Amino acid sequence: MRLTALGPTVFRGVFAAAAALLLTSCGSGGETPGSAGDARRPGARASSADPGGLPGVSGRFREQIPENTRQVVAVYGDGADRATATVVLYTKDGAGWKKRADWPAHNGKKGWTPDHHEDDKRSPVGVFTLTDAGGVLADPGPGGLPYTRSDAFAAPRAWAASHWHDFDLVIAIDYNRVKGTPPNDPTRPEGQSKGGSIWLHLDHGSGTSGCVSLSEQGMRHLLRTLEPDQHPVVVMGDKASLRA
């Protein structure tokens, strides 16, 4: 069942105390917009011994994908210390994984890490479920992940204008958060130092504080396509880490 839209007064009453912290975790007014990265394709291909496999994703990551998962959002970072990436949507059928769409993207401005911490400006490497979505704009639906609409997602107007629409559309990456809650729920089960509020959100043309950002067209496609009963996950990291 999809969540109903919450009015800005109600939502702010619940999360006002933590709003600034949460938004800063994912985006930052201190980010300097740069030129958008080129559309890049993942360099690694599935081997002939693994037909229908996820290209460029090693067995240790594939083993972390739940058996009932039928949708994977793969984020292939261009380098361990680079902020450009490619997002690829795969779906699974009887013949294996099939590529459905891809978009250029950005990740943490300092690259990637297998041990993410608050304010390290790197995106976490790993496999994470995708269960909740939200944003300033209306749900692109029909279908899709449970969606919470609220003005409370809006980026602070003290930030550069290029960041004002970052959180118009958001998909929460289930890193150090409670599943089944709005993306900006402040709860961090593993503690504040592990960071949190790692989202898929709209791109502003440069690296993020840890999230993955892509075009509005890409976000709308994902929000209309990802379904709870397909148990979607994101597999994310720099290409070398994902192959290892």
Descriptive labels:
244 residues, alpha/beta, two-stranded parallel ribbon, 4 helices, 12 strands, 24% strand, globular, disordered N terminus
Task: Kindly describe this structure.
- By secondary structure, this protein is of the alpha/beta class.
- It is 16% helix and 24% strand.
- It has four helices and twelve strands.
- The strands form two sheets. The chain has a ten-stranded mixed sheet. A two-stranded parallel ribbon has the order 4-5.
- The longest helix has 19 residues.
- The protein is globular and about 50 Å long.
- The N terminus is likely disordered.
Compact summary:
The chain is an alpha/beta fold and about 240 residues long.
Annotate the secondary structure layout.
Layout: H1 8-26, H2 59-62, E1 71-77, E2 84-93, E3 96-106, E4 112-113, E5 123-124, E6 126-129, E7 133-135, E8 147-149, E9 170-172, E10 199-202, E11 212-214, H3 216-225, E12 233-238, H4 239-243
Parallel strand pairs: 1-12, 4-5, 7-8, 10-11
Antiparallel strand pairs: 1-2, 2-3, 3-11, 6-12, 7-9, 9-10
Number of strands: 12
Can you summarize the main beta sheet?
10 strands, mixed
Give the % helix.
Answer: 10-25%
The end-to-end distance, rounded to whole angstroms, is: 38 Å
Oligomer: single chain
Report the uncertain regions: 1-21, 27-49
Radius of gyration: 17 Å
Average pLDDT, all residues: 85
The succession of helices and strands, N to C, reads HHEEEEEEEEEEEHEH
Query: Approximately what portion of the residues adopt beta-strand conformation?
Result: 15-25%
Question: Which strand order does the major sheet show?
Answer: 6-12-1-2-3-11-10-9-7-8
Instruction: Indicate the structural class.
Output: alpha/beta
Approximate shape:
globular
Please, how many helices?
4
